[in-house]
Amino acid sequence: MKVPLLDLKAQYQVIKEEVKEAMEEVLESQHFILGPTVEALERAIASYCGCRYGVGVSSGTDALLIALMVKGIGPGEGVITVPYTFFSTAGCVYRLGARPFFVDIDPLTYNMSPHAIETFIETECDFDSSAGALLHKTSGTRIRAIIPVHLYGQCAQMDRIMEMARGHNLVVIEDGAQAIGTEYPYLKSDQPARAGSMGHFGCFSFFPSKNLGGFGDGGMVTTNEEEMAEKLKILRTHGSKPKYYHQLVGGNFRLDALQAAVLLVKLKYLDAWTNKRRQNAAYYNSLFQQPGLVEKGFVTPPQAVWENILSEKLSNQKSETSNSKFEIRNSKLMGHIYNQYVIRAKRRDELRAHLKEHGVGTEIYYPLPLHLQSCFAELGYKAGDFPESEKAAAETLALPIYPELEPAQQEYVVDKIHAFYAS
Question: More exposed terminus of the chain, fewer Cβ within 10 Å: N or C?
């Protein structure tokens, strides 16, 4: 049996006619860059994420880049983020002349550890209350922002991150490239908040392999600030408004109308696809309950249980009616959308080779943490500085989880994993 890591052809067969019709409308209009189709997608994504504004850009990488640019983050300034993520999270910071300051991840969720941020601030920084600035003691760098990554499809612990950001005058840019639609029981809201709506900016990628993927590159920045939304739009067109009159130095970060047309079709199906991913994850979890794997060092993806947040939220409710309503909503909370289904496995590389031999597609996200990448050598980090990130890089493996995955294919994958460890 062949089980690919991702089968976009199966998805396309379901939506093919709608996509062709939507693309034909753009072709007939001959309006290919920005325009009404992009504006429609911006409104739709903003509404879906629970934000006031959406600004379409050319990629998820450019979403991060332009969010940093709109706040003027550059040389002599620093951004707190994690080393266990896709390169662009820290690469965009470095590209602007700013410095990434890494903190370690939570070993269960793989997301930024609030405790690690707190430790970094307490031990390596001073807060200048007169200037309202957090300063790195050794380098004198002013820390300007935090980029938490909602990795694999579930949110970082945003309540604690936002609290620390407010206390130290930091901008929060959510890297939600793998997490559009993910929900979090945010204390500031009566209902669960979606990824991209809790920080100052949310950044999303529409790379084809994402749970909401286009037919090429594309991205979106969400925000609740009108002034920032307008500035983002100016920066994405070389800083010009009106045309040929440049207030700022921006870039060519525009979203194509053809991509927006495809994404508007796909967005209608996104929640159904997410539910299928979650069903597939639950079936994997049940199949992996068979005895023997845990003893061999095999761990399925945990879903964060925000018990402290939920209990506080419930205690703040004033009536039994509102309590029960929240409990019902929370039972449907999309706390993990499984953009990836990532296991931990001893002898990971051997297991991957075994699965490949039997026709099962897998992927390693990410085999070398960013603090050990040669391009960041001048930052002065070394092996052992972020043990949880390094351990995750050595042990994690993504299995097929796409919505069209059949139960028989999942059973085959699990059987081959059992056979590997039995041998």
Answer: C
Q: Which residues contact 86 (CB under 8 A, 6 or more apart)?
A: 177, 365, 366
Domain C-terminal end among 234, 250, 269 = 269
pTM for this predicted structure: 0.91
Q: What is the pLDDT of residues 246-271, one digit of tens each?
A: 989 999 999 999 999 999 999 999 99
Q: Which CATH number fits the domain that encloses residue 317? A: 3.90.1150.10
Is 1 part of any domain?
A: no
CA distance 95 to 101: 14
Q: What is the pLDDT of residues 122-167, one digit of tens each?
A: 999 999 988 889 999 999 999 999 999 999 999 999 999 999 999 9
Say whether 104 sits in a helix, a strand or coil: coil
331: Cβ–Cβ under 8 A, 6 or more apart, which residues?
Answer: none
Report the distance separating Cα 345 and Cα 352, nearest Å: 10
DSSP string over 214-239: -SS--EEEEES-HHHHHHHHHHTBTT
Structural domain ending residue among the three candidates 269, 298, 318? 269
User: For residues 150 and 174, is the Cβ–Cβ distance under 8 A?
Assistant: yes
Residue type at 72 in one-letter notation: G
Report whether pLDDT(332) > 80: no
